[in-house]
Every structure is written in structure tokens, then in C-alpha cells.
Amino acid sequence: MSLKKIFVSILVFYFLIFLILPHTEYQPADPGIKILQIKDFILSGYSNFFASYLGRELDPSLTFFPTKPPFGYIVADNPYYVFPFFVTIAYTPFYLLGGIYALDLLSLISGLLIVFLLYKISNLLEMSETFQKSMILFLGFGSINSIYSFMFGESIHASLFITFAFYLILKTRSTPNSFYFLIAGLISGLSVLFRIELAFFCFLFLLGIFIFQMYKSKLDLILLCVGFGIPAFVLIIANYKVTGNILGLRGIEFLNYSGASYPIEKRLFNLVKALFVSDKGLGLFTAWPVFLFLIPYFSKFKMWKEKKELNFILFVSIVFSLLIPLIVKNDDGSILGPRFASSVQPLLIVGTFYSIQLLADQSILSKWISKLSYFIYYSIAVTILGYIILFFFLKASHKMNIEIDKKISGEVIFISKPDYFSLVFPSVYRKPILSVDSEEEFHKFCKNNRTKIPNMISIVTSNPKYDISTELEYKLVDSFSSNGIHVYNFKSAN
Fold it and tell me: What DSSP element (H or E) covers 31?
């Protein structure tokens, strides 16, 4: 199959998957919270980034704000969701134009642009067409890029930024232009506004340019640093002004999970899970075993020393992929491996396939390289499984929210733990939602606020026999159960 046919196949396949997958605002955790941030920003008249909380009259101290760290924080007596507000600003115009469909389409476009950029980078590296075809097939159909292209989130866009930054630096090898260094610094700096952990990437990017001498003059380095500095200055000033912390709420989250709260043995264990397998999914080498070819490549020191452009790419992408699970505390995603390393995976891919070409040129591991297509097909099969999981995940999440919303009849909603906040997203802007961790705490709250609480209340819990009639003057009106989640509607007995 020619490169042109591969590109057309990817384009057709991506838009087909885009049409098949459900598009919903009601998604658990990160995507759902980001949508709420966008809506809150719009409702504020674009004046602030406070989280909407209709329960404030019942809960002036914000003790029962429905989501807790790491998704929600109280700063200066105002509730905030955790995600960078630069993401909110960037997404808002697209949300206004087309809602979740526009946001999902934006991810798709970024994913396709990454495929094109990696092809351009492979041309700069003078990769042969044979290995270009294998690389594009793997990137387009079997990589994390091909999953994130269909998920609402900023990782795919941050990946586009840093991939473009690499393309500009590599282009200066054949077309010297100091202005490219300024743009590369600016673009990679902008990625930090989307993903704070990419500040570490920017450090490695600068270090790699210096170590591998990817610059022609001191002016190149100065302009690169200026490019980094502009977004960094905006980030520091804006974060401090809004949250009182120069790293923003993500910075607060990282600090909360540093030191004794994230011991070294836990960090090392998470690294092993990220590389191999966890209880939630596959790791880097088990989802994408093609990366194992890097081991024999690095065993050839002479080859490693001669290819500055390639090793610049590999240095940044490998070090970032290995160290970010040690730095950032986060649960693994289903079959997605080390999620926070996803932004650099396109770079790791182009570096890996060019390394395989160099091994093939020297007749090293010829038998294994001849079976490269099987490695690619395996990862494509994993990706197809990912599409299936994503389809049912989005469909179930939307259905659950709609069903629960129809069954809730109370004027106030109590959830028994913050995890259930994502089950009542349709009610966020219509009814007060409070998170009360225990029945005792709930009883105490109701008794202390009896005059404020309406006659009809709803409770969302995992308890199959939730009854408040013995403690409070409420009687059960009706209930609803689905997938271990129970909704109880109570009415005042008075």
C-alpha cells in the first residue's frame, strides 16, 4: 500500500470512528469536569473561573462542595475545579460554536495533524519509505494518538504543540533560521498552559538542544529561552492572581502528592506498572512492544553517537516517559499505559522506527525486524479494543446520567461520596448538590439546617437499604437502582 493510500485510509477511518462513537457531555472525572468549567466560565460572563455551587445557601462554608481534591478545591472561600483555566479559555469558543461535537472534532483534527507532522519529521530524518509506511500505520491505527484523537481532552493538543516544536528545531538543520527557535520555545511553552507536567518536557527540550548541539548560534538559544519565558510569565502571573499559587491548582495537587505522601517505593512500583501492566490496563511495552527495539539500538554506542537529530528526539521522549510516572502521581488509564507520557509518544514513535531502520541497515535483528508488521498488528488490535471500551464507556455514562436525572425528584440532591458527582451532571445548574460522606454526617447536617432544607430531597448512594425515616422526619417516596447505584427520593413527613 502506498503512503498516499495509507493517509487516505487514516482520514476515512478517523471520520468513520468519529461518527460511530457517542458524543456526550456527561463523562466521569476529567472530561465531565472540564465541560462544567467551560459552562461556569460562560455563565460568569467570562469574568471568573469559580465553580457553580447552588448549595452555597445551605452550605456557606463550602464543606459539602460536591467534588473534592484532586478535582475540586476551595481557594479564598471560592470553589474551583482543578483543570487549568487556560484550557477553559481555549475551549470556550469551540464549545459555543458546536458544543461537545466541536470539542471532539478539535481532538480529531489535532490527531490528524500529528500524523502529518510525524511524516514531515521522518522526511527530515531521511527515513526510507518502507519504514515511513510502517510508522504511519502504527501511529494512525495502533498508538495512543489514535485513541486520544477521539477523546475530549487537552493531551492531544499539547502533543501537537510539542511535536510541531520538534519539527521546527529539526528543520533548522537544513534551513537555519533563528526565528524557528523563538516559535519552538513559544509553542512548547504554550503546551505547559495545557499540561503543567510538560514544564519538565520544556526543561528536557532545552537540555537536549544544548547536549546534542541542535543550535547554530547563541542567538538561537536566547530566542528559544525567550519563547519559553513568555508563556511561563503569563502562567505564573495568572495562576498567582487567580489561585494564589504560581503553579495553579495543578501545582497544589502535585505538592499534595509529593514527599512522604508519595514514597519512593510507590513511585517505582507505578513506573513498573506504567511500563508493563497494571490492574487497569496494559503498559508501554505490553501495549506497544515495538518500543522494545530501542534496547538493541542503544547497545550500539557508535550508532548512538553519530545520529544527533535522532538521539535528540529519543533523549527527550525516553527520559520524559521514564521519569514522569516517578514525578506525577496518577492512576493508570484503561489500556492506555502511562497516560501523562502520552504527549511525547509521537516523538518516541518516529525515533523508534528510525532506530529500527538503522538496525536493519546493519543487518541487526533482521529476523525480528522482518516480523515488524506483527508488532504493529498487535497494537492495532489493542487500539480496536480501546475503541470498543470507549464506545460502551461513553454510551453507559450518558445513559446513566439521563436515567438518574429522570428519577431524581428532590429539590436538593445529596451524594454519599464525591465519585457520584459525575452521575448527576444534568442537575448541576438546576439543583443544589451536596456531598455528604456518611449517614451520621448527613443526619447532623439535616438537623442543623432543618428550616433551610426543602420538603423533597434526593439521595444518590451505593447503599441498597438507605433509610432516614428513623432519624429524620422524612418518608421514602420512591427509589431507583442501576449498576449498584441507588437513588432515593424522600418527602418531609410534616
Answer: helix 29-43
